């Protein structure tokens, strides 16, 4: 009891000392500690957004959060897909494939992420041809030092709810068909082709819906005209470089997690699947991976958190996400301590959100096996 | 376990052309891998212009360390090699004795085979050393490398000849070394002028040493039964694990100064070291906590039965076992830290990455697009360090796993 009180008193004294220093410094330098600056005009532009310099600092930070989310969400999806593939490849019986995957993992994992980011930006994306001489595959890809553009879909104005409705109905139908085919398979033992049937149902209903709505979605492909790119979705080289590096780095870590989780599945599972005459692909997809992913999820969560936090390395290549905006706003007379305080709190909130979502998924997955 | 040797043809059929699908995969993979390997080789031995690295080798390795003081670095390298050799020698001898006591003496290996084993274990470092020597434009590095190797070999031989009882004195050497070496190296230039690989190693080593006591306290605090202590520790640990290191590094440069008295503001290197230390301490705390949980309950109960007071029970019974179990994880954390020190690039320190970024702007090389060359070299320096450490950590893990319980 006495010991506890003494430690707390020491910590409190230290905290008071810090706070006292902070107040003294704030007064001496005339830099305030309040959050009033959030309402002030930002006085700086943000490349690649419609942000105007007379908007306030709060809006700038919101733009930053959006940009962090933009790189983090795409990065998490891509890194998971690529990492899983490479993790599986590492366990391939094919010597060449497993060695190539291993080399990839060992090579990427042991180099600092910041080195990869700078390399990807300065040695790859900034070395792309000038806008006038962009490398392009007609209708599919435009690559230049100013724009990286690929096809994208666009929903016609006002028809978004209808499109969503059609997709939901189609998805529901596909699910019902799959259930029906599976029950047929369970009853008769005849091959029921659940996957083919449900895909067909989805495609037919979607197609019918789209015809009925008069083509509500059009795919826009990037058009190139004298160095000006229009249509499709365009990425700045900063965004592309950051995304590329984050995916490269994180996928090498995810590959190791996936490999470990697959190896943790008892061999009997694979053997049982083989005894049931499942093809190698089915064995992996239906038996091994679902169980492995359950084991992998906590470690994957960590990687997702890392990727999100690592997106702050964008500071080095002027992609304007949360950290970079904060840095920019401090350079434009926002007070440093409150700004960084807000930054830390926002990252904590982001981390807790991602951890919360994956914990939810984790609980879902855990139900049913014990 | 060992299978009968396969003939090459059988091996190829078994590992590359098992069935039709496998054969198609092999062909596609061979094309892709072949293309990547070809492009890499063409870059490294053909199109790459390594002059930019060659001209700045000193800058990459030691930053702006004054030329007439560089003998200090050489002295530290030789001392480190000698100590490493000495410890290896004593450890090997102890292992041999233990093996003899177990009636399973290790047969002495022929010299060539031993060299082969060392080559297999340290090939990345050896290749890097050779590359550095070949890139060097004077003969001094050759002499230094020779002296370091001689020191290691002499240390190894002396260590093998010492009586195995020297124990504790000997293990103190590698621990004491950094505390002697750092002031010795800092002497002529002060903290804020370190650069290149030396700055990277300085930041990683000092932060790792400094974060350990803090991490240990946080871990013990989190396991404590006193609610206030536990809450405080959990708060600190989770806070620093939830925020990006970049934010802390930036803050150390601009914001941290506000928390110090105006006349006692530490230098930039010290401030950034504080950021690295606190950040890593949070992770080390979690690692140590894992180690504490891995010590079986019976150990504490036995210690209590012997009447040990809590502090001595922790220090003499629980912690030694807990720490031993988490050595590999701690090495892993050190590797992360080693890689993360590149973040000082963002606040304009002259570390390896910023040297690589800066040398491109020199008058001789400006506007020639040599980013790939200098960044690949920087990446290689880090890769060799991190890869070697991670392999060593796996070795420790395997050795600890055998017969630990």
What is the CATH topology descriptor of the largest domain in chain A? MetI-like fold
Q: What low-confidence regions of chain B span 5 or more consecutive residues with pLDDT below 50?
A: none
User: What does the overall shape of chain A look like?
Assistant: globular
Q: How many separate domains make up the residues of chain A? A: 3
CATH superfamily of the largest domain in chain B: MetI-like
Measured on Cα atoms, how large is the radius of gyration of chain B? 25 Å
What structural class do the secondary elements of chain A suggest? Answer: alpha+beta
The major beta sheet of chain A can be summarized as:
4 strands, antiparallel
> Average pLDDT across residues of chain B?
87
Order of helices and strands of chain A: HHHHEEEEHHEEEEHHHHH
CATH architecture of the largest domain in chain B: Orthogonal Bundle
**Major protein interface:** A-B, 56 and 53 residues
* Main beta sheet of chain B: none
What is the number of helical segments of chain B per DSSP (H or I, 4+ residues)? 17
CATH T-level topology of the largest domain in chain B:
MetI-like fold
Instruction: Record the strand order, biggest sheet of chain A.
Output: 1-2-3-8
Q: Indicate how many domains the architecture of chain B comprises.
A: 3
Can you tell me the CATH class of the largest domain in chain B?
Mainly Alpha
Outline the structure in words.
- The complex is a heterodimer of chains A (370) and B (405).
- By secondary structure, chain A is an alpha+beta fold.
- Chain A has eleven helices and eight strands.
- In chain A, the strands form three sheets. Chain A has a four-stranded antiparallel beta sheet with strand order 1-2-3-8. In chain A, strands 4-5 form a two-stranded antiparallel sheet. Chain A has a two-stranded antiparallel ribbon with strand order 6-7.
- In chain A, helix 2 runs antiparallel to helix 9, helix 7 crosses helix 9 and helix 8 runs antiparallel to helix 9.
- Chain A is globular.
- The mean pLDDT of chain A is 87.
- Chain B is mostly helical and 405 residues long.
- The radius of gyration of chain B is 25 Å and the shape is globular.
- The model of chain B has no long low-confidence stretch (mean pLDDT 87).
- Chain B is 75% helix and 0% strand.
- Chain B contains 17 helices and no strands.
- In chain B, helix 6 runs antiparallel to helix 17, helix 15 packs antiparallel against helix 17 and helix 16 runs antiparallel to helix 17.
- The interface between A and B is large, with 56 and 53 residues.
């Amino acid at each position: 009891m006495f010991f506890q009180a003494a430690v707390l008193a020491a910590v409190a004294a230290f905290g008071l000392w810090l706070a006292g220093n902070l107040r003294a410094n704030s007064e001496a330098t005339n830099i305030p500690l309040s959050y009033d600056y959030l309402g002030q005009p930002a006085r700086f532009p943000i490349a690649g957004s419609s942000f105007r310099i007379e908007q306030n600092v709060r809006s700038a930070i919101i733009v930053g959060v959006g940009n962090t989310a933009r790189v983090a969400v795409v990065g998490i999806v891509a890194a998971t897909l690529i990492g899983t593939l490479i993790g599986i490849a590492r366990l391939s019986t094919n010597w060449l494939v497993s060695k190539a995957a291993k080399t990839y993992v060992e090579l990427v994992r042991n180099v600092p992420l910041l080195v990869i980011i700078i390399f990807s930006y300065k040695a790859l994306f900034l070395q792309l041809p000038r806008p006038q001489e962009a490398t392009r595959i007609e209708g599919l890809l435009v690559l230049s030092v100013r724009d990286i553009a690929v096809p994208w879909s666009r929903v016609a104005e006002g028809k978004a709810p209808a499109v969503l409705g059609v997709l939901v109905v189609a998805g529901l139908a596909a699910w019902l068909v799959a259930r029906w085919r599976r029950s047929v398979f369970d009853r008769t033992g005849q091959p029921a082709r659940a996957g083919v049937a449900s895909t067909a149902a989805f495609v037919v209903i979607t197609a019918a819906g789209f015809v009925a709505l008069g083509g509500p979605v059009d795919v826009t492909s990037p058009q190139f005209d004298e160095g000006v790119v229009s249509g499709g979705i365009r990425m700045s080289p900063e965004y592309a470089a950051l995304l590329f590096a984050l995916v490269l780095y994180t996928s090498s870590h995810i590959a190791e997690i996936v490999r470990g989780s697959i190896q943790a599945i008892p061999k009997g599972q694979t053997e049982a699947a083989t005894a049931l005459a499942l093809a190698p692909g089915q064995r992996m997809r239906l038996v091994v991976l679902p169980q492995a992913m359950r084991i992998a999820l906590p470690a994957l969560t960590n990687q997702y958190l890392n990727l999100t936090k690592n997106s702050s390395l964008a500071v080095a290549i002027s992609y304007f996400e949360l950290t970079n905006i904060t840095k920019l706003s401090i350079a434009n007379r926002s007070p440093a301590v409150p700004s960084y305080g807000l930054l830390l709190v926002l990252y904590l909130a982001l981390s807790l959100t991602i951890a919360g979502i994956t914990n939810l998924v984790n609980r879902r997955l855990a139900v049913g096996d014990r | 376990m060992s299978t009968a040797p396969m003939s090459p043809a059988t091996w190829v059929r078994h590992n590359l052309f098992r069935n039709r699908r496998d054969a198609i995969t092999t062909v596609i993979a061979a094309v892709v891998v072949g293309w990547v390997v070809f492009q890499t080789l063409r870059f490294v031995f053909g199109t790459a212009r390594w002059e930019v690295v060659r001209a700045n080798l000193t800058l990459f390795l030691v930053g702006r360390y004054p030329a007439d003081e560089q003998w200090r670095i050489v002295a530290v390298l030789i001392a480190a090699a000698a100590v490493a050799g000495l410890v290896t020698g004593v450890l090997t001898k102890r292992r041999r004795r233990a093996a003899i006591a177990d009636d399973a003496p290790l047969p002495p290996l022929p010299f060539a085979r031993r060299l082969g084993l060392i080559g297999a274990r340290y090939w990345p470092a050896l290749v890097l050393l050779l590359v550095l020597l070949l890139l060097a434009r004077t003969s001094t590095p050759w002499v230094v490398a020779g002296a370091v190797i001689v020191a290691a070999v002499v240390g190894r031989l002396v260590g093998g000849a010492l009586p195995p009882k020297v124990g504790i004195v000997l293990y103190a050497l590698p621990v004491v070394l950094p505390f002697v070496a750092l002031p010795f190296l800092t002497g002529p230039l002060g903290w804020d002028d370190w650069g290149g690989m030396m700055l990277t190693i300085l930041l990683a080593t000092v932060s790792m040493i400094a974060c350990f006591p803090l991490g240990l306290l946080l871990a013990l605090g989190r396991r404590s039964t006193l609610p206030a202590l536990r809450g405080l520790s959990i708060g600190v640990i989770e806070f620093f694990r939830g925020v990006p290191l970049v934010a802390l590094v930036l803050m150390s440069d601009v914001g941290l100064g506000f928390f110090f008295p105006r006349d006692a503001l530490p230098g930039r290197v010290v401030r950034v070291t504080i950021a690295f230390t606190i950040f890593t301490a949070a992770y080390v705390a979690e690692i140590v906590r894992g180690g504490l949980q891995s010590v079986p309950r019976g150990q504490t109960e036995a210690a209590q039965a012997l009447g040990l007071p809590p502090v001595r029970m922790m220090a003499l019974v629980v912690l030694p076992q807990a720490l031993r179990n988490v050595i590999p994880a701690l090495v892993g954390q050190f590797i992360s830290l080693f890689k993360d020190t590149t973040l000082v690039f963002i606040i304009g320190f002259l570390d390896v990455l910023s040297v690589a970024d800066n040398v491109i702007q020199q008058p001789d090389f400006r506007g020639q697009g040599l980013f790939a060359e200098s960044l690949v070299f920087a990446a290689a320096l880090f890769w060799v360090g991190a890869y070697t450490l991670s392999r060593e950590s796996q070795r420790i893990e395997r050795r600890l796993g055998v017969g630990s319980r």
